[in-house]
């Protein structure tokens, strides 16, 4: 198999970093992937993936600097508050031209660039949890010294676990209110439809099966058909039929406005978090 990605390091491979490691392993695109975690138990969770070496800092205290020194792309996946210390730890180990990619919500490109210096291109990313099953939406924002070639390379990396949207950094928080938080909105709708089924007298298992598989089936149809969601909705909604009556009730709830308010609230909170509130 042809490898299209150079050596990758994922420092702090929590749920998101681990999902990306799994995506890279599935794809066979990377020649090698080194992931680090604090504990041996966490490191073991990623053992056995093809081309992935999983190292615990408890066993190898220099694992972060070792991994950073040998990689061409370094993903920073530690908690946001830990990012500056980690960057200071690895800065001297990074070779000029190594691409540093942030997975940390709320940490600005400027924070990264100030610590790693002008010779290290920085790209900020915002993936979402469906990365675990290869269905992520990832936003990418390029730093001041990241070239189009750097961005294209990192794009290919994230495309191993989903689709990629390139945005200016000022749009990353807005993107996170749609795709970052979006899975939770969908799960909430599945919960609500399950409750409606239970209210109609169905047992929990059947109610869940109906609600969950209806969402899964509908999104699979949307993906396979290439049609607009509105067109697929029209096809289900026969004139003067039962679905039309139900949709009429849902539309009285002003769903457009509700989702606009919800995502505005999420964006407001993202800005608060960025200022340390």
TrEMBL record:
GO BP annotation list: L-proline biosynthetic process
PROSITE patterns in the cross-refs: P5CR
Keyword Isomerase on entry: no
A GO CC term attached to the entry: cytoplasm
Subcellular location: Cytoplasm
Residue intervals of the Pyrroline-5-carboxylate reductase catalytic N-terminal domain: 8-106
Keyword line: Amino-acid biosynthesis, Cytoplasm, NADP, Oxidoreductase, Proline biosynthesis
EC number: 1.5.1.2
Pyrroline-5-carboxylate reductase dimerisation domain residues: 169-273
Listed InterPro entries: 6-PGluconate_DH-like_C_sf, NAD(P)-bd_dom_sf, P5C_Rdtase_cat_N, P5CR-like_CS, P5CR_dimer, Pyrroline-COOH_reductase
Binding-site residues for NADP(+), renumbered to this chain: 11-16
MF (Gene Ontology): pyrroline-5-carboxylate reductase activity
Positions bound to NADPH: 64
Gene3D superfamilies, A to Z: NAD(P)-binding Rossmann-like Domain, ProC C-terminal domain-like
Principal cellular location given in the protein's record: cytoplasm
Reactions catalysed, as given in the entry: L-proline + NAD(+) = (S)-1-pyrroline-5-carboxylate + NADH + 2 H(+); L-proline + NADP(+) = (S)-1-pyrroline-5-carboxylate + NADPH + 2 H(+)
Pathway: Amino-acid biosynthesis; L-proline biosynthesis; L-proline from L-glutamate 5-semialdehyde: step 1/1
Annotated family: Belongs to the pyrroline-5-carboxylate reductase family.
UniProt-listed HAMAP family: P5C_reductase
Function: Catalyzes the reduction of 1-pyrroline-5-carboxylate (PCA) to L-proline.
Protein name: Pyrroline-5-carboxylate reductase
Organism, as annotated: Microbacterium oleivorans
Species lineage: Bacteria, Bacillati, Actinomycetota, Actinomycetes, Micrococcales
Gene: proC
